[in-house]
Amino acid sequence: MASRLLLRSAVRAAAVYRASPVIALTRGMAAGGIPTDQEQATGMEKLVMHALKQGSDPYSMLKPKEYAGSKQDPHVVPSITNKRIVGCICEEDNTSVVWFWLHEGEPQRCPSCGAHYKLVPHQLPH
Ligand SMILES: [Zn+2]
User: Fold this and answer.
1) Within 13 Å, how many C-alpha atoms sit on residue 57's CB side?
2) How far apart are CA 64 and CA 62, in angstroms?
3) Dist. CA 108 → ligand 1 center (Å)
4) How many whole angstroms separate alpha carbon 79 and alpha carbon 77?
5) What is the pLDDT of residue 31?
6) What are the N6-acetyllysine sites (modified residues) in this protein (predicted)?
7) Residue 11's CB: how many other CB atoms inside 10 A?
8) Where is 78: in which H helix or E strand?
9) What is the 10 CA–ligand 1 centroid distance (Å)?
């Protein structure tokens, strides 16, 4: 008798188990899914990601833009002060660098090749 009751309750339990929906593992999904890098970034990483998303490059991580070096399109040199030392490799395969100080104001020319350089103010992001 006891074994019959035990069997009946086991069958009921199995029927209830089959009828209930299968509970899938929901690790990380309860809060809307796995967070992206931008959602979980903090501090400096978050600042850099936000700046790159807006198209700016505050830490000069991207390849610098190329300029013609002419008077109309001078090489732009960012600086946090009113002057900066610039090294010009006048020709592509030169092994020596021509160094000169670039000051704020009008574009200056390289003393060797004559390429134009212009100093622009730059603010550090922090
Ligand atoms: Zn030069």
Assistant:
1) 7
2) 6
3) 11
4) 6
5) 62
6) 65, 83, 118
7) 10
8) strand 75-79
9) 89
Q: In this structure, are residues 82 and 104 in contact, taking their beta carbons and an 8 Å threshold? A: yes
Digit-coded pLDDT (tens) for 77-102: 989 999 999 999 999 899 999 999 99
- Would you call 44 helix, strand, or coil by DSSP? helix
pTM as predicted: 0.58
Span 20-40, pLDDT tens digits: 565 555 555 566 778 888 889
Q: How far apart are CA 73 and CA 109, in angstroms?
A: 12
Alpha-carbon distance of 108 to 76, in angstroms, equals 11
Between the CA of 56 and the centroid of ligand 1 the distance, in Å, is: 28
Picking from 110, 107, 116, the residue whose alpha carbon sits closest to that of residue 69 is: 116
Whether residue 116 contacts residue 109, with contact meaning beta carbons closer than 8 Å, is answered with yes
CA of 51 to the centre of ligand 1 (A): 32
**Known binding-site residue numbers for Zn(2+):** 88, 90, 110, 113
